[in-house]
Amino acid sequence: MSPNSEDPSTSAINMSAAARAMLGKVHKLVPPMLERFHKGQLGRVAVIGGSADYTGAPYFSAMASARLGCDMSYVFCEPSAAPTIKSYSPNLMVSPILRSTASISQAQKEQDPSGEELAKPILDMLPRLHVLVIGPGLGRDVVTQRQVKAVIAAARKHNPPVPMVLDADALLLVQTDPDLIRGHKECILTPNVVEFGRLAKSVGMDQNTRDPEKACQELSKILGGVCIIQKGPVDYISQGIDTTVSEFQGGLKRSGGQGDTLTGSLGTLLAWREAYHEKLWDIGDEMSREETLLLAAFGGSAITRECSRRAFVKNQRSLQASDLTEEVHQSFLTLIGEPSQTQAPKQNL
């Protein structure tokens, strides 16, 4: 650490009153640690991604989800990626059930299986999952993309619908077929500025507006209430009804993979959001699902930016995506914090 660097454990976090109020509401989504909860109840999150060329992204996403506090963290990846991802950590449940042109047989190629047929191993898992994170390391293989489209469609039709986070090459699917997620109010998209522009163009949105907050809200409305986090120097966040800005300081190093900390954090927050609306503990006055969707998005953005800030203080120019993973828990404690252990437990489960 350079002589002029701040100590990340003691540095003051400067935030607006509005941001502090938002984080106070995010705090309400965090489940208390109660003895009666069982394994898996507070978050079963699956990352769908990982291919021969991209093994780091799904790992960073799944580990961020785990470090934030989900109970069970899965990776559904292409077979060639599974051994490598397994070797990164024994804490993740890695299943090689994502298909690609290289991993289906010649007979299957000749039969030209549907997306639903390819996706069956993943579809069979949907009842056991709280959230899907789709896109980290996904790649653009046509067989993989066909399978993932079927997963998204099935997750929407599931009762109840499975919340999801879409990033990276999953956004390409939305760009080519916006109806795939249009109206899915349990979904968060995380485009960067370039990806946002492509999504806006795909739905015929006028991109001449100079107000990024209004643009974010307009695109969300066009997509029927899908929540959007437009990443950039600040993050603009909207679910079509309300719009907020995440202005927390991040690090100055732009290494690849930092966005995967965001997707994983969002996965856990969405899982906690489900537990909140199931009223697994005494939640007091219930917030609407529209409000809690925005809060989960804001919380994920805030945690990721704080991870980046803390990791940059420690590592400066050498910062890598894995450094953010190590900061997830402390960033959560700094910004949001654990709920009171004295909350009245709900007994009639």
Would you mind describing this structure in some detail?
- It is found in: Cytoplasm.
- The chain is α/β, with parallel strands linked by helices.
- It has one domain (32-336): Ribokinase (UDP-N-acetylmuramoyl-L-alanine:D-glutamate ligase), CATH 3.40.1190.
- It is built from 13 helices and nine strands.
- It has a nine-stranded mixed beta sheet with strand order 3-2-1-4-5-6-7-8-9, sandwiched between helices.
- Helix 5 crosses helix 6, helix 7 (169-176) runs parallel beside helix 8 and helix 11 (289-315) packs across helix 13.
- Mean pLDDT is 92; it is low at 1-5 and 342-349.
CATH architecture level-2 label: 3-Layer(aba) Sandwich
* CATH class category label: Alpha Beta
Low-confidence stretches: 1-5, 342-349
H and E order = HEHEHEHHEHEHEHHEEEHHHH
Average pLDDT over all residues: 92
Q: What shape does the CA trace take?
A: globular
Count all strands and give the number: 9
Helix content: 40-55%
Give a quick summary of the entry:
This protein has 349 residues and is of the alpha/beta class. The protein has helices at residues 17-27, 56-68, 82-88, 106-111, 115-123, 142-157, 169-176, 193-202, 212-222, 258-277, 289-315, 321-325, 328-335; strands at 44-48, 72-76, 93-95, 131-134, 164-166, 187-189, 227-230, 235-238, 243-246. Its EC number is 4.2.1.93.
